[in-house]
Amino acid sequence: xxxxxxxxxxxxxxxxxxxxxxxxxxxxxxxxxxxxxxxxxxxxxxxxxxxxxxxxxxxxxxxxxxxxxxxxxxxxxxxxxxxxxxxxxxxxxxxxxxxxxxxxxxxxxxxxxxxxxxxxxxxxxxxxxxxxxxxxxxxxxxxxxxxxxxxxxxxxxxxxxxxxxxxxxxxxxxxxxxxxxxxxxxxxxxxxxxxxxxxxxxxxxxxxxxxxxxxxxxxx
Length: 220
Prior knowledge:
Elements: E1 2-15, E2 23-31, E3 35-44, E4 49-77, E5 83-110, E6 115-128, E7 131-142, E8 149-158, E9 166-177, E10 182-191, E11 208-219
Antiparallel strand pairs: 1-3, 1-11, 2-4, 3-4, 4-5, 4-8, 5-6, 5-7, 6-9, 7-8, 9-10, 10-11
């Protein structure tokens, strides 16, 4: 048995795959400071094979600015507070910042005394979440793409209450034992579940968290 504590950062984004035709271009992207802390335990069956699990507190966040066309949206005008719903053409700035408790279930394979590979699944529960943003420099077609055109300078939207509490997906990575107790790791996690609740219909395509985690650990 091996026990360890780990710390690191998540770098990535929450995105539809592939990009739908409504998103014409990504003007900018910036990751948020997304830190994770984890305690894990590993059981080795022989010199090469083992399994590991644990519990991880992690944040996954980003900011994007995109140009969109006929993008389904509900929003509130910043000038008069009016509520609007329809198809937006223009620009959107979006912030995603979600905090999860995650349990990984991984198979481990030792390539050598210093290197090991890890792969398996993870299951997450969201304890805090934000999906909000700003729509600007464009117009809204009320109801559908053929509705009345309304020009808007700037409006805001917030779908934080529509985020799903549960997430699951796959995780794949590698770990290097730099010293007797110090390890360095890199892992890619790919969420298979849409971040929104199943009854949320405003955003018409699924969005999935895809993040690379890099960090270090202390091996007891």
